[in-house]
Design goal:
Helix content is about 80%, strand content about 0%. It has 11 helices and no strands.
């Protein structure tokens, strides 16, 4: 493929992937296939995608930082399990073929989409909440879910943001900007641990990764900055539309 065309594809995919991750998650849905299309092997494409979008997530996290208003009683345990899960998921990726795990992705996406859409009703039914000073039962529930999300994120990462938003919705958060602030913080930690593992394993394609990273920075920061100016109902619709699209796509890829 022509190097200029390859660069345009990777930069555009990184920019769109960074924008999606900042608002709804699912940037890997764009970036990972773009790397495969330009000739990067599957495992290396996954690793390169993770590193590129990790930088974009950090850019969007800076734009959301004023909305990160959460009790340390909850934040610190979530960060700890994110570190552990991100390392474990990345280690599993470099030790096993990806296709066996890809079969589970559409079912996880479907569950996450439904959880995000109806999370508030579930919260009222379970009477749990992470607002204010959350109870230890709510913290344990959040950490258990976040550990699974972190392992998944370290392994593949496609739709990790959707899963995190679903968890936060089910635990009583309804401010989409605050949810995105916490999502980007946790995602940065998870992908950071995966990035460290992939660097040590030497599976990253740097030439493609640098181009995609540049796009992810532009898309991630710009999307996070302007998304805060939109009505929250609009952002929630973007999240739902993105997650539904990802679910349909992964079902198609897995069973065709």
């Amino acid at each position: 493929m022509n190097p200029l065309l390859t660069g345009i594809i990777l930069f555009s995919a990184g920019m769109l992937g960074g924008a999606l991750n900042a608002v709804a998650g699912g940037g890997s849905f764009v970036a990972f296939p773009a790397l495969l299309f330009t000739g990067v092997p599957a495992i290396s494409a996954n690793a390169t995608n993770t590193i590129s979008l990790w930088v974009g997530v950090n850019a969007s996290a800076r734009a959301y930082r004023k909305h990160l208003n959460i009790s340390r009683r909850l934040l610190i345990p979530l960060l700890v399990v994110s570190v552990a899960g991100g390392l474990l998921g990345a280690f599993v990726l470099i030790r096993t073929p990806a296709h066996t795990f890809l079969r589970t992705i559409p079912w996880m996406m479907l569950g996450a989409t439904l959880l995000f859409m109806f999370g508030n009703r579930l919260t009222r039914y379970l009477a749990i909440s992470v607002s204010g000073e959350p109870r230890w039962s709510a913290i344990a529930a959040a950490c258990g879910f976040e550990l699974l999300v972190a392992i998944y994120g370290g392994y593949f990462g496609g739709g990790m943001g959707i899963l995190t938003l679903a968890m936060l919705a089910a635990l009583g958060m309804n401010d989409i900007n605050a949810m995105n602030a916490l999502k980007t913080t946790l995602g940065s930690v998870i992908n950071g641990m995966a990035t460290l593992t992939f660097l040590l394993a030497g599976v990253v394609y740097w030439r493609q990764g640098v181009v995609m990273t540049a796009g992810a920075i532009v898309g991630g920061y710009a999307s996070a900055h302007y998304a805060q100016k939109l009505p929250q109902s609009w952002i929630r619709r973007v999240v739902i539309l993105t997650s539904l699209s990802m679910t349909i796509y992964f079902f198609y890829r897995s069973y065709h």
